[in-house]
Write a structure and sequence with these properties.
Layout lengths: L2 H52 L33 E6 L8 E6 L3 H4 L3 E3 L10 E6 L20 E5 L3 E7 L4 E3 L21 E9 L6 E14 L11
Parallel strand pairs: 2-3, 4-8
Antiparallel strand pairs: 1-2, 1-5, 3-4, 5-6, 6-9, 7-9, 8-9
């Protein structure tokens, strides 16, 4: 084989490898975002449809009903249905990340789930309940939901709504960097958060560095208030 042939083969190989690398970069930077936008929009539409169907209809007064002054016997409270794996159940809004930032929250943190939105750690508390409601999201790829995570500051609000209630959480720390094995950050009283007892908390987690996964960034928040959806959006949420 001549030197010219070797050079030509090597050049063609380099061109092929370069083309593959460019295509991969385009896939990571662009195509995963396109797919995530479509998947996220689909999850949000599903939630809105579910909530619209389950919204209580207003009823006209029944003339045969007991007088309103007569105390009614309260109906027994039914336990909330369990979140279904891979299914959306809430929407999160973080004004610090932009006016149009809203992402569905799905049950579980499997790879396929995080391609469609944010993922709720299954072993942690339900939204608004006592304990630590913990949520993970991609920093980069699949829509970059937590791209601006390092911008979070103490006092920032995080709004989360389900079909009936708006929950307002308040960030208490600048993002804390730790390792993936530090699972205490999602404990009922999250380790390292500064919380000194039981409460209703939120933990947000994402990867660090921006294009890697050797570490994690953590932000903690406490529940600052709640409001029925029927009364409108929280005052601080401007969209």
């Amino acid at each position: 084989m001549s030197v010219r042939t070797v050079v030509r083969v090597f050049s063609e190989l380099c061109l092929t490898v370069g083309t593959v690398i460019v295509l991969f970069v385009v896939y990571v930077l662009f195509w995963t975002g396109v797919r995530a936008d479509s998947a996220t929009a689909g999850q949000l539409d599903r939630l809105r449809e579910q909530w619209a169907k389950s919204a209580p209809a207003s009823k006209a007064p029944d003339p045969k009903a007991p007088d309103s002054k007569t105390p009614a016997t309260p109906a027994p409270e039914e336990p909330a249905p369990a979140y279904r794996e891979g299914e959306p159940f809430a929407v999160m809004y973080v004004p610090r990340f932009g006016e149009d930032w809203d992402w569905p929250v799905l049950e579980g943190t499997a790879t396929g789930t995080l391609k469609k939105g944010l993922g709720h750690y299954r072993a942690t508390a339900r939204l608004g309940e006592h304990g630590n409601f913990s949520v993970a999201g991609h920093r980069r790829t699949y829509g970059d939901p937590f791209k601006d995570f390092p911008k979070l500051r103490p006092g920032d609000p995080v709004y989360v709504r389900d079909g009936t209630t708006w929950f307002t959480y308040r960030i208490v720390n600048r993002p804390h960097r730790t390792v993936p094995s530090d699972i205490g950050v999602v404990d009922p009283v999250p380790r390292g958060s500064g919380f000194d007892g039981p409460g209703r908390y939120l933990t947000l987690t994402t990867c660090d560095p921006e294009w890697g996964s050797s570490h994690r960034l953590i932000a903690w928040a406490h529940l600052d208030g709640e409001k029925p959806v029927a009364e409108g959006e929280p005052t601080g949420l401007r969209r």
